[in-house]
Amino acid sequence: MLSAISLSKQFSQSQKPHERLLSVLTNSNSFPESSYTALTNITFSLEKGETVGIIGRNGAGKSTLLQIICGTLSPSSGSISVEGRVAALLELGAGFNPEFTGRENIYLNAAIYGLTRSEIDEKLDAIIEFSGIGDFVDQPVQHYSSGMFVRLAFSVIAHVDADILIIDEALAVGDALFAQKCIRFLEEFKKKGSILFVSHDSGAITRLCDRAIWLEKGHMRMIGDASEVSEAYLEYLYSQQQDVEQVSPAKKLETRGEYSAEHSWVDARDELFQQSTLRNDIDILRFDENGKAFGSGAATIADVLFRNTAGQAVSWVVGGSQVCLEVVVHPETDIDNLIVGFLVKNRQGQVLFGENNCVFDQDTPLCVKAGKHYRTRFTFMMPYLPEGDYVISVGVASGTQLEHVQHCWRHDALVFSVTGSHVVHGLFGVPVAACETTPID
Known about the structure:
Elements: E1 2-13, H1 17-26, E2 34-46, E3 51-55, H2 62-70, E4 77-82, E5 86-89, H3 102-112, H4 117-131, H5 146-157, E6 164-168, H6 176-189, E7 194-198, H7 202-208, E8 211-216, E9 219-225, H8 226-242, E10 281-284, E11 299-307, E12 313-314, E13 316-318, E14 322-331, E15 338-346, E16 351-356, H9 357-360, E17 374-381, E18 388-399, E19 404-419
Parallel strand pairs: 3-7, 3-8, 5-6, 6-7
Antiparallel strand pairs: 1-2, 1-4, 8-9, 10-13, 10-19, 11-12, 11-14, 14-17, 15-16, 15-18, 18-19
Helix pairs in contact: 3-4, 3-5, 4-5
C-alpha cells in the first residue's frame, strides 16, 4: 500500500526582504540562505490492513512526513510509493474555504479526494449525519469551533472510500463522544484499509496500531511493535524531564538488607473447583526482581505480589473477589513525599485501571528512610476480565500527583493470564453486589 525509502527533507530559511534587496543592489551574497533538515533517511512500509502509529515530540518531523506521503510536500531525497486513494486529516481547516458553508465545503473537500458530484450527492446525508453538526452545516465554517471543524473534516474522509487514512492529532480536539465514534470507525476501517495515525496518546497508539514509529529530531529512533515503542518513548520522556538514565534494579538489590522475597505460595482454587465453568480464573507469574526498569535509581522495587484476604501470597485469584496488591519498595536515599502506584494493562497496552497512595494520603506526605523496606498494599475487588494476558506496571516516585520524579518504573512487574470468562463485551466487567427485578405497582 505504501513504501517510503530513505526520505529526507530540507527547508531553506530564506533571506528577509530587505536582505534580498541589498543582495540584488550590491550584486553580492552578503546574506546567504541557510537551511534546516526536518527529516533524515526515513524508511518504512504500510501494508494493507495495517495500522501504523507515529509518535514523537513537537518538531520531531511527524507532520512533515505525513505531508510528503499526502503529496503536499516533495522530499529533498528518497522515494515514496503509494497505492490507492489517500484521505488525510492533517490540521484544522485544511482543504476548507472559511467563507463557504459546511455543505459547500463537503463538496469541495470530497472533490479533492476524487469523488464526482453524483457520488457526493449519494453520500451527503451520511456525511452530515456522521458529523452531528445539524443545522450548522449551512453556516460558513469560519464561525465553527475547532470541534465542529474536526467533526466535519473527519466525516468527509470517513465517506470517501479511501484505501489509506492519515490522521494527525485530530482526535485530540472536540468532545469525548465524537472521539469515541471516530475510534469505532477506525477500528472498523482497519478490516479493509490501512491507517497512519499520529497521536501523543500512547493508549490510543497501543489500542489502534499494529506497529509504531518513533521520530526524534527528524530521525527514526525506533520502529516496531506499538506497545514496545510506546513504552520506550515513555521511558525517554521521563529521562529527558528528569535528566536520568535507565536504571536496572538488579544493580541495586545487593543492598536491600534483610528483606526476603520468599513466600509460602498457596493456590486457593481447591475451595472453588465445584463452581461455575464461567469462573474468572487468573494465574499470576512471580515477580522477577531482575527485570528491566527505568528511573532516577533513588528507590527500587523489591517485590510485587498478590495476597488473599487471609494475607497469604497467592499465585491464583478469581475475578470478582477481594484481593490485595502488595508493592515492596527499597529506598536508596531518604525520600519525602513517596508515591507508589500501579496500572493494569491488557495485551494491547490499554490501561484498564490503576491507583496510587498519593490519592489516599494527600494531607499526610509519606517520608521514608534509606536502607529500609516499605510495604504498600492496595485492597480492591478484582474486576472480571476477558480471557487473555495482562501486565501490571508499578512505579515509585516522589512529589505530587501532577509534578513528580520517577525513581523506578517497571512496565511488566507482574504478568498474569485469564482463563475462563463470561465477559464478552467491553474491557472488563464490574463485580455487582446484587441484581433483582421487582414489580413497581
